[in-house]
Every structure is written in C-alpha cells, then in structure tokens.
Fold this sequence. Notes:
This protein is mainly β. The chain has one domain (20-117): Sandwich (Immunoglobulin-like). Helices cover 13% and strands 42% of the residues. The protein contains 1 helix and 8 strands. The protein has a 4-stranded mixed sheet with strand order 5-4-1-8, with no helix packed on it. Strands 3-2-6-7 form a 4-stranded antiparallel sheet, with no helix packed on it. The chain is elongated and about 85 Å long. The termini are far apart. The model has no long low-confidence stretch (mean pLDDT 83).
Amino acid sequence: xxxxxxxxxxxxxxxxxxxxxxxxxxxxxxxxxxxxxxxxxxxxxxxxxxxxxxxxxxxxxxxxxxxxxxxxxxxxxxxxxxxxxxxxxxxxxxxxxxxxxxxxxxxxxxxxxxxxxxxxxxxxxxxxxxxx
Length: 132
C-alpha cells in the first residue's frame, strides 16, 4: 500500500513539473518609411512593411515568491532587419537597419511596434571612443 501511494505521489509530481512549462506569444508590427521594405526576422523573411509577426517566448513556473505572477520568461533574442525596397525609385539613398530585441521584455504588453526610417544616413563616430 505504501509503494502504491509513493508511486502515485511521484507520478503526480512528474505531471505537475512537466505541465509547468508553456509559451507566451508577442506580436510585433514593423513599419518603415518608405513602406514596402523587406523584413527579415532571425533569418526568415516576414514579407514587406507594414508587416506583422509573432514570436513565442518560453516560460516556466517558478512560484509566486520568485517572480511576479509566478512565471519566469526565458530570454528570447530577436534580430529584425529592415532593408530598402528593391523597387524604390526616389533620389535619396536608403539605408538598411538592424534591431536587436528581446521578446521576453515585451511579454507584459503582448505586442511591440518597430518603426524604421530608411532615409537616415549611417553615422560613424567622428572621434575615437576609449573604453576603460
């Protein structure tokens, strides 16, 4: 009888632990000036601006004493690259932009908006930067 109780207790704990991992979805909206710019997220094409995509953020239960709401979100890096449209016929030169984001930091709102102005010129430091 003790063996049966112990076995069922272990099974219950195993089910509880296995059931405590999940994912949260974060919606991203990408807009650009000019519109129609190709968007690449983590190496995968997501179409042209304006574009929307979702990122899954893994989470696990850590308890109410360890995190607000009891869930801890796994750091989820996202690389978003916005490139000049291939059919752009204007007279200004366009510059691609790359953004490094962390989707786990956008979980609270459930969405994030990225705006890119491809008319901006790339800038390099004009003076050496010394790091100590």
